[in-house]
Automatic annotation (TrEMBL):
Signal peptide: none
InterPro entries to which the protein is assigned, alphabetical: Pribosyltran_N, PRTase-like, PRTase_dom, Rib-P_diPkinase
Molecular-function annotations in GO: kinase activity; magnesium ion binding; ribose phosphate diphosphokinase activity
GO terms for biological process, alphabetical: 5-phosphoribose 1-diphosphate biosynthetic process; purine nucleotide biosynthetic process
Protein name as annotated: Ribose-phosphate pyrophosphokinase
Family: Belongs to the ribose-phosphate pyrophosphokinase family.
Pfam families according to UniProt: Pribosyltran (PF00156), Pribosyltran_N (PF13793)
Keyword list, A-Z: Kinase, Nucleotide biosynthesis, Transferase
SUPFAM superfamilies given in the database record: PRTase-like
Cellular component, GO annotation: cytoplasm; ribose phosphate diphosphokinase complex
Amino acid sequence: MDILIGFPEGAALAGNLAARTGLPLHQVSLHRFPDGESLVRLEAAPERAVIVRSLDQPNAKLVELQFLAGALRERGAKELTLVAPYLAYMRQDMEFRPGEVVSQRIMGRWLGGLFDRIVTVDPHLHRTHDLGEVFPGGRSAALTAGPLLGAWARAQGAADQGWIVLGPDEESDHLVEGAASAAGVQGIVGLKVRRGDHDVSVGLPAGTNLTGRTILFVDDIISSGGTLIDAAKVAYAHGAARVLAATVHAVFPMERLEAFKAAGIDSVVSADGIPHPTNAIGLSDLIADCLAVL
């Protein structure tokens, strides 16, 4: 029997994906003890299972995934697929300072040993250009939600109103291209300089004129929002009339919306891989189509 397994915090996406794939949905039950240990419970013994869990706030989630995957193997599971729309520990892909642990390689070996197939969406990769490098020998897919962000923009009238899609740097190029094409508008890729986790500046190509235009800022993740705020300031300095934002992974606290508003950002929307009040873009069709061919 094939089943789809969801976790409590991601029930909405798991439910949508189950409906889209036709797989029966089983929900994991979790209990966390006062000392931080987790108890994982699932009454199922499938031959094949798709497990859906985004790995934001990852540490406890990863331990619980290992318990679940190990238990399913003990019960006879032959194939386990992990759908992790947000994939943790991908940014550290080299030793920047002596002694730093390269988490991407280690995480790849760990998850690759637990799961036969891994599906993620716009992973936060830098120098690694193929997810197969992270999970060698396994089947993996790195999907992009760029066209979905663009479809949302088109539904808001982006093409008729002449919006411009703006990405912060060259790493956002694929998102900008996908979003701008789907929206039917122009795309621009900026230049980002990062001096620290909360110290980021964004520049625009020489001669950029945004006079009177609505700017849709797109990025794979909005966490502190520093990049978004700086991009809005730069856009307004170049004549923009309005700034909106769309992201694949929203991990910022809702209190940050006040700072976004103060910077002139009208609204922020996100895809639903990580449950967040800004969710407005569904990923279930994108993921289901991938599962059908992976």
